[in-house]
Amino acid sequence: MRQPDIDLPSRLLEALSPWRTAQTWRIGFSGGLDSTVLLHLLATLAKTRPLPRLAALHVHHGLQAVADGWPAHCQAVCDELGVPLQVIRVSVQLGASLERAARDARYLAFAGVTQLHDVLLTAQHREDQAETLLFRLLRGAGVRGLAAMPAQREVGGGYLVRPLLDVSRAELERYAHKHGLRWIEDPSNADQQFSRNFLRQQTFPGLTERWPQAVTSMVRSAAHLREAQELLDELAEVDLDDALAHSRHVWLGMPSLALDALIDLSPARQRNALRHWLAPLTRLPDSDHWAGWDDLRDAAHDARPKWRLAEGELHRADEHLWWLSGSWLRQPLADIAWNCPSRPLELPDNGELLVVGEAPAGPLQVRYRQGGEVLHLPDRGHRDLKRLLNESGVPWFVRGRLPLLYRGEELLAVANLPGLDGGALGDWHLHWQPPSSDQGLS
């Protein structure tokens, strides 16, 4: 059996070999044992190997008085190793889980500083991976959750990489003692009110006493589940291929799926495809909340169903599923005077409006549909707007925020709809750029 602590530097370099062309390696540096060893390893290797530029990042949560001294400790370590340090102070939004709130704040800070082609390195090790698997198993996670922490994933403009997942905490401790490293002991790590601390201090000692290879076996299981999730993702891509075909309303710029491409799949494949599609958009629902998908899918043809999720809503209209979030969930401000139609008009909570071509004479005003509107078309006479929208197949959730251009009480144009957008009245068109529905959660 190999001596793992002896070849730790070469194992680290092997794990990081795909990332050697990055511009910068940023090390998430808490000052604890794990990140101290990672930082020391990289700083030492950089003296003899051509590595990307190193930079350390310390996130200060401000949750404990003792933590106020940690940035100074981290600065001293970085000065000794010749690695620049950036300290980011974050505000933790307290909720049901302090652990999760602190983690969310930390990774939001990581995403904010990780630039294009940068790699952010964090020091989670083998025991962390096993704890993650067991913790998620106890919470009833599915295959994606039980795959535990991936070795790499996208963050900000670059990638987050965990190069020590195959290294045990004991190996890190041996390295630290061998090189005389100093690190911070977080007093909150002794508090068993936190679930991971309870698992670490109460559960794992008993497991490893009875089954010495428990941690290694659990990490192996997580790898098997990760492979299974990759196969499920591939299946989802196949199932979504037809469903991602654009509708006739591509100008909405919204994530959407063709419903008929999904309903012929088995319920399990429907959920798998939707999980894959929703993952970059919102936190996924637990098993109890997937009934919302059944209700949305099975609603009557003329119904207006929606499924509320953590970061938005899934609507069904025009035989498509539409993802709405952000400004799309807020009622836009109506009755806006447009005094300079030669320039784009910013619509509060509703994107941007402009006239392409020579704008009609004013004074002009932008309104939204209230009901009963009539549009005069030169070749068709006065037409009820509701019927015109039905003919155009505009999804129902768009109709109340589709910009209408008025001159006095005369409705001149409806944005973006060919034949209704002003072209019939002159050499101009009313163009609307809707608000983005992209939350950027990937």
UniProtKB/TrEMBL annotation:
GO terms for biological process: tRNA modification. The keyword Cytoplasm applies. Residues 364-432 form the Lysidine-tRNA(Ile) synthetase C-terminal domain. Transmembrane segments: none annotated. The keyword Transmembrane does not apply. It catalyses: cytidine(34) in tRNA(Ile2) + L-lysine + ATP = lysidine(34) in tRNA(Ile2) + AMP + diphosphate + H(+). InterPro entries: Lysidine-tRNA-synth_C (IPR012796), Rossmann-like_a/b/a_fold (IPR014729), TilS/TtcA_N (IPR011063), tRNA_Ile_lys_synt (IPR012094), tRNA_Ile_lys_synt_N (IPR012795), tRNA_Ile_lys_synt_subst-bd (IPR015262). Its EC number is 6.3.4.19. Its main location: cytoplasm. One of its GO terms (molecular function) is tRNA(Ile)-lysidine synthase activity. One of its GO terms (cellular component) is cytoplasm. It is an enzyme of class 6 (ligase). It is found in: Cytoplasm. Keywords: ATP-binding, Cytoplasm, Ligase, Nucleotide-binding, tRNA processing. ATP binds at residues 30-35. The N-terminal region contains the highly conserved SGGXDS motif, predicted to be a P-loop motif involved in ATP binding. Belongs to the tRNA(Ile)-lysidine synthase family. Ligates lysine onto the cytidine present at position 34 of the AUA codon-specific tRNA(Ile) that contains the anticodon CAU, in an ATP-dependent manner. Cytidine is converted to lysidine, thus changing the amino acid specificity of the tRNA from methionine to isoleucine. This is tRNA(Ile)-lysidine synthase. It comes from Pseudomonas batumici.
